[in-house]
Amino acid sequence: MSFDSAMTGFAALYIFMLAGFAGWVIIGNVPAILHTPLMSGSNFVHGIVVVGGLSALLDASTTLAQAIGFGAVLLGAGNAAGGYAVTDRMLAMFQPSAAPRPAHARKRKG
Amino acid sequence: MLATLAQMAIGATDLVAAFLFLFGLKRMSSPATAASGIRVAGVGMVAAVLVSFLYVFTIDAAARPHLPVNLALALVALGIGGGGAWLAGRRVAMTAMPQMVAIYNGMGGGAAGGIAAVELFDNRAQGSTHLVVTLLGALIGAVSMSGSAIAWAKLQGVLGAPLRFGGQRGLNALVFVAALVVGGWIVAVVAGGVAPMLPVTTWIAIFFGLALLFGILMTLPIGGADMPVVISIYNAFTGLAVAFEGYVLGNPALMIAGMVVGAAGLLLTLLMARAMNRSVANVLFSNFGGAPAKGRRGAITGTERETQASDAAIKMRYAASVIIVPGYGLAAAHAQQKLYEFVKLLLAAKVVVRFAIHPVAGRMPGQMDVLLAEAGVPYDMIFQLDDINADFATTDVALIIGANDVVNPAARSDKASPIYGMPILNADRAGQVYVIKRGQGKGYSGIVNALFYAPNCDMVYGDAQAVLVKMIEAVRGLGAAAA
Questions:
Q1: DSSP B79
Q2: Is B289 on the interface with A (CB under 8 A)?
Q3: How would DSSP label each residue in B352-402?
Q4: Distance between terminal CA atoms of chain B?
Q5: B405 is catalytic
Q6: Secondary structure class of B93 (helix, strand, coil)
Q7: Strand order in B352-357's β-sheet?
């Protein structure tokens, strides 16, 4: 018995089409004021590639595959963690007129 | 049995993660909910990473003896890569954000390329479709990695002027075609059984070498001011590469996340290019930014008129409404804090103050908004071009700081101007215009700005921070004199 989560042929193309459309519509609604955090945020989202790196590394049986897999996980983890850190930092800075600014957004400037 | 359960758990968690990514991005469409949006997406990421350790139950028999080593390697890689990038991301200055995003982006492209490399070297592809998609993802990922590295070097100032030489486009095209040919050859050898001449692994290495080289060559001639578009494009590239490798690995979460980012990056790229009044192809291949255009003064009469910082400050203090147009020069002078201090004095005197942001202000889309937010400016005071442009005509004073081309009226009127047709902020229509500028000079495009010679425009020369300090003192002095 096997559980197959793989997407092949037209199913894969449907996923690509729908995901691309969803991305276009969702991002199209983001105001220009948020374009930098949006870009770093979407940058963070493609950090999911680290999961693919993990599957490749755990399945490695040669030294070459281990080395490349290690690199892939390292880079993917950097992409995800770094993308999150900068996006979270930037978004914490956006405050309306009335609200007092949170201390951590002030402290980390410069 | 265990393998099946593990796969089901991974599949289910990845499904939830994909939903959380989309939901999180959706929440980013308003400044009020955006901060929670990234956290929602973050939860999805942590869940997806944790559950992917269940892959240990699904591995090949050949990999089983290596499992302890591989697990240790995975933890070390996660720790170093994640920890290092996290610390760097927490510390980086907001002005250096474009470089930082370029690095993270290149890392993602490299990771996608790495996954493709493992697939190719281990010869895991099932059939020619798989192989072609793997190679495509590898190509795009590698280009994104090396291209982002060059973009970083340019933004960081490690690399200076754009590198251009004769026959450059021909060479770039040659390298690109060579990568495609080698990729096609690999498909023919692996899937078609053609005699390889060299070992297949050598061909794969050549393929990656050519792809990396193309990323470098393609980015080298592009000027620093065009980097917003370049970063956007590589963001989209990395997304696409991740989506393709997701297909190869049979992981729908990667496919969805990658394709969403690919579409998002494409949309942002088009928005940026439109705000510069140029096509994406023009940005990538025309070598515009940094080339000294001929300064034309033919149609412009009059001279630049200088005024004192204190006079300008007092005029603004007694105005009913002021619109501030900040450009990258403001950030270069680290003057955002001083600017907001000055604005607070104006607000206290019941002046209506708003900020007008041009789409290409800064070195990446929206960077000026972030820099103002960092200085404490509330987001409801910040307006985008379309929302505020009509209001300049009814505004007493427009204060322009470190911006030039984005307020050049030649874009509206002078058909011969290289920036003709570019959307600009109509600051020239305000009753009085003040321009804070380091000295007499041109914008990055090298175009003379007719606004500076207009009868309603006065120039305040000097470093933005020093000028703003004088302005603050002038307004404070008024208050003291009145008391």
A1: I
A2: no
A3: EEEEEE-TT-SSSTTHHHHHHHHHT--GGGEEEHHHHGGGGGG-SEEEEES
A4: 84
A5: yes
A6: coil
A7: B382-384, B352-357, B321-326, B397-401, B432-437, B457-461
Pairing between strand B457-461 and B321-326?
unpaired
Q: What backbone torsions phi and psi does residue B194 show, to the nearest 5 degrees?
A: -70, 145
Q: What radius of gyration, in Å, describes the C-alpha atoms of chain B?
A: 27
Distance of CA B329 to the CA centre of its chain: 18
Tokens in use for A19? 């995901």
Question: Which among B90, B258, B375 is the nearest to A46, CB-wise?
Answer: B258
Question: Within the 135-194 window of chain B, which residues sit less than 8 Å (CB to CB) from chain A?
Answer: none
* CA dist., res. B42 & res. A89, Å (int): 13
**For the segment B300-347, what is each residue's pLDDT rounded down to a tens digit?**
667 788 999 999 999 999 999 999 999 988 988 899 999 999 999 999
Count the neighbouring beta carbons within 10 Å of the beta carbon of residue B185. Answer: 19
Q: Please, what is the angle between helix B31-51 and helix A49-58, to 10°?
A: 10
The 3 state secondary structure assigned to B100-141 is: HHHHHHHHHHHHHHHHHHHHHHCCCCCHHHHHHHHHHHHHHH
**Active-site annotation holder among B226, B405, B414, B458:** B405
Give the span between the Cα atoms of A46 and B105, in whole angstroms: 9
Reported ipTM exceeds the 0.90 cut: no
Strands B382-384 and B457-461: unpaired
* Residue range B382-405, pLDDT digits in tens: 999 989 999 999 999 999 998 888
Kindly state the tokens that stand for B377: 């400016």
| Average pLDDT score over residue span B31-41 | 93
CB contact B73 to A (< 8 Å): yes
CA contacts within 13 A on the Cβ side of B356: 27
Residues 6+ apart with CB under 8 A from A84: A44, A47, B38, B41, B42, B45, B86, B89
Q: Would strands B382-384 and B397-401 be described as parallel, antiparallel, or unpaired?
A: unpaired
Question: Do residues B80 and A74 lie in contact, with contact meaning Cβ atoms separated by under 8 Å?
Answer: yes
Neighbours of B198 (CB within 10 A): 11
CB contacts < 8 A, A to B, total 412
